[in-house]
Amino acid sequence: STLKILLAHTAEDRGNAGPDYQFGYGSVRIQRAVDFLRTGSFLEAEVDQSGTYSVLVLVEPGDPELKVTLAWDDFPATLNTGTALINDLDLRVFDPSSTQPFPWTLDPLAASAAAVQTQANRRDNIEQVYVQSPAAGVWRVEVSGFNIPQGPQPFSIATSPELVACSTTGIVVLDAPKYACSDTA
Prior knowledge:
Shape: globular
Order of helices and strands: HHEEEEEEEE
Number of helices: 2
Strand content: 25-35%
Radius of gyration: 17 Å
Helix content: under 10%
Structural class: mainly beta
Distance between the termini: 40 Å
Number of strands: 8
Largest sheet: 4 strands, antiparallel
């Protein structure tokens, strides 16, 4: 799953915007993937049924995009069944005002149609939220165990800009580039 997020997160988009049935998430760019690997803006964790794992992403003013990619190695499905996804994780991203952009989803009945970002993805074991010109501030990213009959489910997640892995104690973000010695926080 980590290799999958590194390659999908750094791919050169081809065809329709977002993933599509012809190009997937795009053309692999190894140098981008290696450079991204060096940033350390990814992690591996796990989540169980109804559990949630959270990280934060600090978007600076002028950042051109926010991209969050989640992937997991799903358990094998039973042969000849309609549903191939066994464990379903949800990637939920919230901007500083708690508005939720959705991950890309494709319609298998309309293979040439563009991917949309209007709903949760219940079909794939890789999900990506992409936002052009994101609002500056702290974005909350959650990986939620929507349906995990075989768990816990390990996963990998990558973010651009850089993620801030938090503990239950949280983080403090100061809103000025510089504070004087007499300032109080």
